[in-house]
Amino acid sequence: MEFNCYDVLEVQGSRYIITEKIKYNEIIPKADQEQAYKAKPSMQKSPGDYWHEYGLEAVEGTDKIWVTIEYNDNEWCTVSRTSYRKRAPKGFTLHQIGLEKVVAVDGDSGASVGDRAGYKEYQLPCEGGASVFFEENWFKGEKMFAEGSRVQLVNIKLCNDAAANAVRKKKRNQRLKERLEGFAMAIGCGALFLMCLVSWDSDLTWHGIRGTFGFPYTAKEHMHDTSVYYTKTDSDNEYTSSLDPVSTALELIDSLNGDIKNEGESLAEGHEVIVFYDAKSAYIITNVDGQTRVKVCEPGKLTPEEQELINSTIRKTHVLDSYAYMVRQRDSSGREKFLNIHNLNEADKAYMFNR
User: Origin, by domain of life (predicted)?
Assistant: First the structure.
């Protein structure tokens, strides 16, 4: 027997509506903290056994109950309420022990798929069934207790009359309204956050917002997006550029918002080498037979030859560092101002910026 959220049930003569439905699977204890829930086979379910737990609220009044139905029991279920006892009452004996995992959730529930708990069920046989006491130790840090009784399933009835349908519709609409209000609240918080970003004079581009949350735009993404300049080679980390080495370096620094360090360059015409780093990658820009090549990789993955090339590129004028600083300051006056504030000779100026 299985029910759905917002079904109206008659339980022992009183009407309740299901507000949450949780499906559990029995699993095998593995972690150290789970070993306490191993027991002899007669006191344990079999791995893969499942059952449903329904949270119900009274149609009239404030009573809340739980109905637990096992997939292979067509005669009995358990009806219980949250208990403030921390241990089983006198006379109860341990009936079952095991480890449960949440595999499905519907409705308004504090449970999530993947939650795990060790459980113990104590019983006290009595006329017409048994009294029960449950202890659940959720490994996310919470303990729960419940007590109730075993009840024959014939005492659980699904109600489909006009009154039940009206209650079902009202509860479903109430949940939809709460979801819409939550969605509206999320939109409002998002709008407020964007207003804060504006007031902080932040970069509101998609790349800037990504950077705010720790996912900055990468140079590899930039080279992919500007394929008019860059062509990927057979290697995952190597590209060719249609720009000269210096223009390529400046263009990449722009794409990285100026966040570079440890720059160095050797600008012998026809054999240019420019290197710099960002937080995660090394960049090597070279002129090979008149073709600008760009290598981007983690520093630890550089080949010995590439590391030697970097070490031999010892001329560090800090020109690129200075340009990167201007980019970080969002100086929009362009590269012409950059030229004017540095004492470069005319040959260097012509070489670096008049291409």
Answer: Bacteria
